[in-house]
Amino acid sequence: MKTRLFLVRHGETVDNANQIMQGQTQGELNDEGVRQARELRDCLASTAVDAFVASDLWRSVQTARILSEPHGLEVETTPLLRERDWGSFTGRYIPDLKDEVWPDDIESLDDLTARAGRFLQFIRERYEGRTVVAVGHGIINKAIQAVYYGRQMREVERMTNCEVRTLEL
User: Fold this and answer.
1) Can you give the pLDDT at residue 41?
2) Which ranges of 51-150 would DSSP assign to H, the alpha helix?
3) How confident is the model at residue 1, as a pLDDT?
């Protein structure tokens, strides 16, 4: 029996709306992000879900807790689902970064995709044959899908806030 993974990007945050590079900062859902999470919660309410897993960053935990309400399940957190570490780009206005030289303290794509692979292995081992909702972030979710499909990250379409992609493991 296959494991069904609903991969979700967290709801919109204050920093998303202000185009701030959040990276591994905690973040906070804004009113739109809460609305998005509640809308997705209502869509998933009748779906049988065995577990909710989230990045250990607050914006993902907050989203996952809203999604889990109708199911009465606790949210497990893991640093494997954290957003990419943007190093010294963290906290900066994204449009200002366009022509900047990337600093050496940004998490490498090799490290990011290795972490994505460890996350998929974690889900396979811990939740074999179950249905899991996992709430992560834009870039780590791209990396997870790139590993899953055997593609380059640039070949994976960007996820919007509270978008869901289904993977069968």
Assistant:
1) 98
2) 58-68, 109-126, 138-149
3) 84
Report the DSSP pairing between strands 51-55 and 131-136.
parallel
Q: Which of 67, 41, 40, 39 has the alpha carbon at shortest distance from 53?
A: 67
The DSSP line for 25-60 is S---B-HHHHHHHHHHHHHHTTS---EEEEESSHHH
- pTM for this prediction: 0.96
CB count in 10 Å sphere of residue 144? 27
SS3 category, 168: strand
- Asked whether residue 109 carries a pLDDT value surpassing 90, the answer given is yes
Judge contact between 116 and 143, C-beta under 8 A: yes
Pairwise CA distance, residues 127 & 31, whole Å: 32
Whole-number average pLDDT of the chain = 97
- Residue with the two structure tokens 């499909």: 149
- Rounded CA gap, 133 and 4, in Å? 9
What is the distance between the alpha carbons of residues 11 and 26, in angstroms, rounded to a whole number?
Answer: 13
> Can you spell out the DSSP letters for 121-139?
HHHHHHSTTSEEEEEE-HH
Beta pairing partners, 7: 134, 165
Pull the structure tokens for residue 95: 């449009």
Strands ordered across the beta sheet of 51-55: 75-78, 51-55, 131-136, 4-9, 164-168
